[in-house]
């Protein structure tokens, strides 16, 4: 049976979400990401791309290229909500869905031509997403994932493109080799050094030459350049880890500040676990020094979503990890080994009031924002930019909770 693979991508997703919340941003140059000079561009509107701005670029450079752009820090909770909404729409309408990222999806429509017409079905699906979410979305349709993804990128912004079976090589040939998935900046520079800039040139090369230069990846790039990709759709499944990172505006050696940041991260991630009905069994802490040397340490623990178990574990890992006494640039926390479940009372360590306290705290956070109620250990300069700093109390600071378990 002929395969039919649909690739969908929400256009400038973070920017589009911000524009839903504030229509004044429409048709204006918008950049979402770190607002300081050491921040990174997470998403850039098409208006800024004309100036050379792109995601992954240092915010300082983006500001120099497009000084009139509107910089927005962004809110992960908002983007997660809209991503989940689009995921639910797609899951209800397609047989097999793969969620490649927060804003990118693949769907296997093989066999549906006989009953619906895949292109017509995909068009109606795209219109439904636009109608129900308010977000612009593009799609590419072909017989495999690579060609569909490239077609989506060619269709943008907010459009669609179908590549007929048998025309894959012809479609790819005039494009830059950089548009083939797997070809990053380093590989692209290697191609340029060889005098190769278009997919057509790679299509004419013997596969043996590609493997001699790029190893096993050379064969994959050659196949994809020729429109060959048998990669299956990996059905969507729930994430197995959640994480948070912070890059300081100025490298620091202030251990109190760093520990406050880590406590705020752990508290916010623990709330996310409980909100999603999840438990974590692995805790990882990462630090990056001012010389960009990066180290991490992890530990396996009993399944939990409780702050008073997770925060001390994070602090303990940091104490073991931080041994160079060098300025720190970045810190991060990750909870993994996630499974479904709710926090249970430990008969030896906890009291019923502990669980009741978490329930009360979470109700406040769900209503007013994840940073509306915090522990004293997670409050301070180091906690800035962690979690959702929605100000729910008409200008009042968040509730500070100093909680100690027995």
TrEMBL record:
Complexes and interactors: Monomer.
CDD domains listed in its UniProt record: PolY_Pol_IV_kappa
Keywords (A to Z) from UniProt: Cytoplasm, DNA damage, DNA repair, DNA replication, DNA-binding, DNA-directed DNA polymerase, Magnesium, Metal-binding, Mutator protein, Nucleotidyltransferase, Transferase
Gene for this chain: dinB
Protein name: DNA polymerase IV
UniProt cofactor note: Binds 2 magnesium ions per subunit.
GO cellular component annotations of the record: cytosol
The organism of origin for this protein: Seonamhaeicola marinus
Catalytic residues as annotated in Swiss-Prot or TrEMBL: 104
Swiss-Prot/TrEMBL catalytic activity: DNA(n) + a 2'-deoxyribonucleoside 5'-triphosphate = DNA(n+1) + diphosphate
Pfam families on file: IMS (PF00817), IMS_C (PF11799)
């Amino acid at each position: 049976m002929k395969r039919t693979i649909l690739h969908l991508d929400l256009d400038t997703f973070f920017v589009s979400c911000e524009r839903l919340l504030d229509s004044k941003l429409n048709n204006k140059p918008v950049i979402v990401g770190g607002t300081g000079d050491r921040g990174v561009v997470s998403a850039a509107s098409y208006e800024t791309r004309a100036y050379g701005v792109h995601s992954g670029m240092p915010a300082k450079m983006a500001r120099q290229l497009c000084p009139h752009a509107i910089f927005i820090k962004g809110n992960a909770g908002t983007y997660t909500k809209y991503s989940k909404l689009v995921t639910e729409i797609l899951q209800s309408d397609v047989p097999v869905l793969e969620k490649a990222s927060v804003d990118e999806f693949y769907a296997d429509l093989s066999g549906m031509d006989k009953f619906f017409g895949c292109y017509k079905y995909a068009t109606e699906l795209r219109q439904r997403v636009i109608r129900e979410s308010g977000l612009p979305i593009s799609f590419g349709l072909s017989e495999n994932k690579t060609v569909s993804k490239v077609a989506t990128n060619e269709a943008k912004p907010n459009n669609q493109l179908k590549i007929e079976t048998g025309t894959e090589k012809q479609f790819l040939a005039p494009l830059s080799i950089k548009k083939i998935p797997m070809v990053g900046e380093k590989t692209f520079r290697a191609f340029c050094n060889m005098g190769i800039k278009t997919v057509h040139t790679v299509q004419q090369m013997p596969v043996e030459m590609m493997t001699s230069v790029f190893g096993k990846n050379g064969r994959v790039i050659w196949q994809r350049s020729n429109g060959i990709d048998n990669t299956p759709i990996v059905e969507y499944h729930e994430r197995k880890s959640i994480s948070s990172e912070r890059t300081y505006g100025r490298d620091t050696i202030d251990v109190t500040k760093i520990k406050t940041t880590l406590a705020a991260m752990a508290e916010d991630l623990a709330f996310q676990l409980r909100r999603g009905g999840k438990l974590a069994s692995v805790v990882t802490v990462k630090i990056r020094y001012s010389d960009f040397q990066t180290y991490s340490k992890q530990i396996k623990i009993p399944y939990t979503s409780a702050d008073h178990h997770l925060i001390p574990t994070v602090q303990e890992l940091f104490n073991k990890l931080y041994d160079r006494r060098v300025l720190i640039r970045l810190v991060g926390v990750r909870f993994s080994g996630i499974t479904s479940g709710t926090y249970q009372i430990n008969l030896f360590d906890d009291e019923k009031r502990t669980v009741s306290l978490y329930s009360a705290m979470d109700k406040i956070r769900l209503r007013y924002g994840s940073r509306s109620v915090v522990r004293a250990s997670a409050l301070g300069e180091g906690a800035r930019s962690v979690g959702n700093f929605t100000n729910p109390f008409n200008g009042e600071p968040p509730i500070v909770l100093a909680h100690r378990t027995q």
